Amino acid sequence: MAITFFGYGSLVNAATLGRDVELVPGRLSGWVRAWRVCGTSSAGRGVCVLTVHRRAGAQIEGALARQPADRLPALLQREHKYDPIPGIGAAFRADGTGEPGPEDSFLFQVKDRYARWGDADHPIYQSYLDCVLAGYFGTFGWDGVRRFLETTEGWHVPVLPDRENPLYARAVTLTAELREGIDDVLAEHGVRYLQQR
């Protein structure tokens, strides 16, 4: 038995998923990505992360991840601020083949009590954003990173530059080239930063 879910943020980065994962890059129709999940991180401070919401005509890139079903409890614990939304397989198309996802594919959408835009007290951690963009770069290249920025709502939410002392529990190590490239793309997009406190 296996589970299949659509990743649109950190779940696109295989390094955060552990063993026995198969990723299928593609596009999901009818959904849009947004910086609209606020809560407290394991580091004990406010944070804003990604969710999706329905929108007719919209399309986002991501990846279908397939794992053994015994990994589901750990996944649900990781995504405890989200509800699993089933039945999204028909809206997915795999890159290269155009195949839809399995009928039982699902995605994670924020629970109502966490659903609001980030702010200075709930910023985007750069360590989280680095993880997400490293996954998109590895899967879709620089064009994919730029499309991620263009198809994500909420860039008014500031970024906390915690790269040197990561607050994100699943932070990844970037090469110097990738770090510089990410910084350049974020600067092109006008992303603003908070001062560390």
Automatic annotation (TrEMBL):
InterPro entries: GGCT-like (IPR013024). Gene3D superfamilies: Gamma-glutamyl cyclotransferase-like. This is Gamma-glutamylcyclotransferase.
